[in-house]
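Hi Y.,

Following your request, here is the sequence exactly as I used it, all 826 residues.
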Amino acid sequence: MRHYPDFTSTAAAQKVAGGLVVTSGKFLCREGQKFSTRGVSYGPFRPNSRSEPFPEDAQLAADLAHIQRLGFDTVRVYHPPTEALLKEASRLGLQLIVGIAWTDHVDFMRSAALKREILATVRAEATRLRDHPCVIAFLVGNEIEKTLVRWLGPRRVQRFLEKLIAVGRACAPGKLFSYATYPSTEYLIPRNADFLAVNVYLEQRADFAAYLQRLQHLAGNKPLVISEFGLDTAAHDDAAQAETFAWFEEECRRAAVAGTVWFSYTDEWFRGGEAVTQWRFGIVDEMREEKPSAQFKVLSSLSTAYSPPISVIVCTYNGTATLRPCLESLQKLRYADYEVLLIDDGSTEDIASIAADFPAVRYLRQEHAGLSAARNLGMKEARGEILAYTDDDCLVDEDWLTHIAAGFGDPQWGACGGPNIPPVPRNQAEAIVAAAPGAPAHVMLNDAEAEHLPGCNLAIRKAALEGIGGFREAYRTAGDDVDVCWRLRESGGRLRFMPGVMVWHHRRRSFGAYLRQQRGYGHAEALLMKDHPERFGPIGGARWRGAIYGDAASAMDLAEGSIFHGPLGLGLFQVIYQQSRRCRLDWFSGVLWIALAGMALLLGWVWLALLLFTLSVFAAICLCRSLPHPPHELTLMDRTKLLALCWLHPMVREGARLRGMITLGARPSWHPTLREVFEPSKPRRVSIPLGEWAFWSESGATRETLLRHLIEALKASGHEVQTDTGWRRFDLETPPKSPLTVSFLTMTEYHTNGRTLTRVSTRLRIPGWVGFVALVLLAQSLKDLTQADVSGAAVPAVFLFLLFNLRINLASILFKAADQSGMKST
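Below is the corresponding structure, written out as tokens. Let me know if you'd prefer a different format.
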């Protein structure tokens, strides 16, 4: 459940009935108040006398009371809580994050019965706990093993987790849902989760701080919760744990983390049928004696050593519809030294009467000269060291300036900004527009440094902005922020992205307003091209050096080649790389192809006109599919309208850019600047399943042993073998660099008493064009067969014979390797 500020009332925060915890942008919220959870994990334990994975009732009550005294407000449990636990947590005012355990250590997608059982488990627990006020969130899974995810396919696992969340949310609509991922599967993020939950263990402060920045980008517009973090006192001393606990809390607050869970409360830990004694992560030992880390008292709010005077500048032109809530949000800022300047760019609406209701706001009016001129007036009149720009259709978070100040604590940064998130739409048209392409977005060179920050949420050192001559006043409606960011970087300045520097930013409330906005963006691109020709390619598109992020940026692509799994899928940090996800049909989007279709129609070439028009529609479908899940529910009719906007968007924007290029004399460079952030290449291959086998080992032999013997067997048979470098979804490939190759993918399931089951899948990998030719030949053969032409069966018969023969040879080699590994076929 999400909570958004209400633009239609004078209150910036909407009350939530019943004290429910909801998400609010990057944060959690209860009854209209933002808060951060401070949690600790509890269990699992040796089963008690009732076979429950928790201590006896007296010990459980004492533990929860102790947890509360230590200052924690949230407890994460790995099994659904018992009635005794629920009763004590409610009495003590503790919140629960409930894990729903299921069989996630085996190939759970193989059996339809097992999938139904897992869904039933989630449904039953969500139904049982939906009315308990102490339960604030469910985690529908926890750390599915990385090689198992690679075996099953990241997309399939993601969709299954999304189904679990959908089922749970239908049963408990008032609760939050997510899945606890970890760095080895950082890409495994259900798109319908309410927040991003990550278990992460990093012992160096700088590494942890840097990784939090990355996780915030993966979280997007949702809250980030660190669902596990800890330090083992068996490997480190108690003092090291206490020191780590302190900086962990500080870094999480600095990075605007919405909630934390320290792993764990006690050293007592029971898993896999036995007590775990080699690790000691608790802040108390098995006897509940406190360690030094238990004495740490977390700060109630983010503190920053650098607190400069800040001037907030709001520029408006006829913005009466949203200006009042914007100014109200600025009144609620929790920062000591700031001023608010309202610059009226010659509005025809009565801006002055709204400003009069806010005595602390300095109201300045100029003749209508455009957005850049208004921003420059604000720069000249500002008294602060930092200029914080936002728009009249934005609401700022109450800690906006505090995070801005923290962002400027290091003098190397000349500008700072953060996410701009669409609030609840004012009508259904705005909901559709919020899902459409073309929204303001930030462009990142790495997880911390930006190439561009949108002007609706942009803070700049006054001296730095004055040093480049302020905003160029030729940019009257858009493009000014892009120009300033580029010029700041050219002058040696650096732009910092801070996830806590958050504003709510309305998207356009009608389709006409949206298309006018995109037309303005297109004209601004022509202006930018005139001033920065080296940043545009030969056909006029902007050439960003970094990767584009934002609510309408392309969704993460889980296809092969987007994720670095590490060799053999064993990477500890399996990174997903931001991809454009654009398809080749994008060449047929935009005004040029529609113009060609019109010319073809005038010349009487109806078939060509229809072909070009059809291709442009398919290009719009590709663009629509590349967008992330919309922030609000859309009906089928809404999605049809969204598709129409995806079709119109490139035409309107490109058309305005081309007109601007003609009138302004702007020309792109034939030698644009090179990217600094590169997308990994994807394999253009089709995979055809050849066979799948499973091998049991009583001695615990794993895939590593099997692969070693398989390589030896393949080489002994005269096959050249290549192991995966980390980018492909296979372990071995033979022969390498050949148009037709055979791949092997393996995974080991770990069962009781140290026994293992290793699965092996083989696939024929062929180039896409070969697959297309094969389909054409197969279609022709089927056509011949329908016409009683027996010769048509020759092609599929030969193909099937070759596949069958290949399968037999592979099985022979594989069984030999399994026998050498001490495994038996099942």
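Residues 256 and 411 are 21 Å apart (CA to CA).

Thanks again,
Q.
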